Every structure is written in C-alpha cells, then in structure tokens.
Amino acid sequence: MQIPQLRAFCAVAQTGSITAAARVLNKVPSSITVRIRQLEEDLGRELFLRESKRMFLSPAGRQLLEHAQRILDLADGTRALMRDEESSGPLVVGALDVVLVDYMPRLIGRMRQRHRGIHLNVRHQASEDLVAHVADGSLDVALTEGPVISKALKSKVAFVDEMLLVTAPGHRDVTTPADLDCTELYGFRHDCSFRFRMDRWLSCGNRADMPVIEIESYHTMLACVSAGMGAAWMLRSILKTLPGHHQVKTHSLGEAGRTEIHFVWRDGHLSRNAALLMETAAMD
Description:
Structural class: alpha/beta
Helix content: 40-55%
CATH class of the largest domain: Alpha Beta
Radius of gyration: 31 Å
Number of strands: 11
CATH topology of the largest domain: D-Maltodextrin-Binding Protein, domain 2
Number of helices: 11
Order of helices and strands: HHHEEHEHHEHEEEHEHEHEEH
Number of domains: 3
C-alpha cells in the first residue's frame, strides 16, 4: 500500500470516475487505473462497484476511505513540516548580551505584531557557544559578532554598531593604546569576541602587558571608569542605556571599533520561522 495508490483511491471515491480523478491529480487515466488495481490486489478486496462509467465505493472501500484520508493528511502534514511550509513550533534564538539590551526587544516587538503564532525562545550565550550551538542544531539562528567564517554556517549582517573606549572625563584623547593613561582595562571573559578584539588592540599597540579585569556587568564597568580606576571597551548602543553615561568620556577607535552583529544559521537549514525573523529585522 503506497501513498500514490491511496491518493488515487481517494480521488476516484470523491469524483466517481477514473477520468475525473485523473484530471484532479493531473495524471493520465491509465495510471489511476493501475494504482487502483494494485491497491485492490495488495489488500485482497474489491474497493469499487463499477456501473457503466461510474464507480461507487464497495463496503470495503467505504471502510478504507476514512483511514486513507487520515494517512494522506499525515503524509501531507509531515511533508509541509519538513519543507518549513508552516510557521509552527518554537523558534530558538541565541544572542549576545549586547543584542538583548537594545536590539532584541525592538525586534521581538515587531515579530509579535506580524507573526503572533510563532513561539520565540531567546537564549543568552557567549560568542563561542552561540556558534557551536548553531552548528550542532541546538539553535535555529544566532545573533553574534561576525562575519562567521565556516563552511557549515552562513551569516548576514543584522546591524552595525561601534565599539568605544570609555575613560574618566579628564582623560586625554586616545587614538592608540599608547595614549592610555590608566593602570587597567575592564572587559568580559576570554570566550567573548569583544574581549578577543580588546586583546588584539592592546597587542598591536605594544600594551599587551596592561591588566584586563574581567567584569561581567556593564553597570559595574561604568562605575569603575567613572571613579577614575581604569578604562573599558563598550558598544555605543549599550553605553547609551546606562545611567551615568554622560559622566564619562568616549573615544572612537576608528575601524578597530566597527562592530557587525550578524544573523548566523546552518547552511541549508534556515527554517521558515528564522527567515521570518530576519525579514522582520530587515523592515527596521
């Protein structure tokens, strides 16, 4: 018993003739006849009573019809699910903390307005974890610093931000690490992509020996900077949300500070819901 045979059977049952069923299924009548005959042989029962050019369900055919329709509905639903033709099921999104502060709330709001049926599950993770979990399928899509170089992954710019050096108000202008007049910098742990960039910036400016204190709170970082204890790297979008951001001095790092946040997904596995999320983001 095969799906094409059941589909032919249901079509004949609904239309009452081989010719009409062939038109509905866009097949030649002979192929419908063959499938009906094969199904009857497989089940060992006569499924239709044939009178002139009309075909009526036999008792066995009436018994089969409801089950056949259920099987076809299940097969069609499974095919739609695998092709992502339906926006069902949760959308699991991973994001950097900097994305969750300003960008993600606005994006979630727009998604709620346009696609209320999508259940959105948002997880906060570090850069390395985000990429790893997209690769293993734990996340449908992630928002992390990019571009991500991987044969298994694809990425697309979500938004562009700027990484600033933040110092006490009286600090001299800083264009290179050599201009720093403080004893320490504040940043996140080593699995953060922004920390990688900070370390590279210091190393290129022959200041790799400067201590970097790991503080996983932007509010605490800003408080330390305001107190004149050191300096910090901070995204412009984050800084503007913090109380007291007018009480510090910011320094542009030029190209070194340019920050691209990318959508990242597995190549060939972009779900329909993830695509809708990216389409909604592009409307901003």
